Amino acid sequence: xxxxxxxxxxxxxxAHIRSHRKPRRSASTIAMRAGVAGxxxxxxxxxxxxxxxxxxxxxxQTLELPTLTGDVAAQVAQSAAATQQAAxxxxxxxxxxxxxxxxxxxxxxxxxxxxxxxxxKKKAEEARRAAAEAAATRSSERTTLSASASASASxxxSAPASGSxxxxxxxxxxxxxxxxxxxxxxxxAWDCSSLVQAAFRQVGVDLPRVSQDQSMQGTDIPLSSIQxxxxxxxxxxxxxxxxxxxxxxxxxxxAANPSKGVVIQDLSGYPASGAVRVL
Length: 279
Description:
The protein is α+β, with helices and mostly antiparallel strands. The protein has 2 domains: 29-129; 161-277, endopeptidase domain like (from Nostoc punctiforme) (endopeptidase fold (from Nostoc punctiforme), Alpha-Beta Complex). It has helices spanning 27-155, 163-174, 192-201, 211-214, and strands spanning 179-180, 189-190, 219-221, 231-234, 242-248, 251-257, 261-266, 274-277.
């Protein structure tokens, strides 16, 4: 066999100079450098792995964000629901408070009205009793006056008058003899209606001025049931042309006419058309 040819590498022209020769690497140096290189590579591998891990962290956090965000959203929704419920509760409580306040005001108003009605009813009852008592008193006075008038007619002695009806009769009798003047209102001259008006004014009864209106006052009384103090009228009710006052014993007192003046007359001579009672 032929031996392989070994190529001949020409030497550098400086190879014979020692200072220009490249030092040969020993095995230990190569090993050391290999170890160092291995260590560096290991370090780089670790660093690379660490960097990869560090680079992966944001990805991991990003993947977890939806879970965290979902939890926060749930908490926010729960808080909003709680806030809304609290607001609804406050609104409901406010409505209840307003309703209670309105009910209290209404109850207070009803109570005040009930008290007013009770007071009005009480006053009306008192007025009714007073009116009944006054009516009984007037009836008694009329009876007394009628009896006294009858006694006076038989004996010729004037009987004293008392009470409200008596005051009216006493005033009328005090005017007997005064003149009759149409439209006159006293104190020394009268017409029929002004004399009746003035007489009842003595006891606080305010009658209209003219005969027609005076015939519309008070309560209608049948002529068969007239009593002392009743107002007599001649003509139609509401259109009367003359008035006077019954004084008992079939007599009445009036401002008759210009020729008679204020006089006492018998009903039998000039019967009245009707009567009203204001006392």
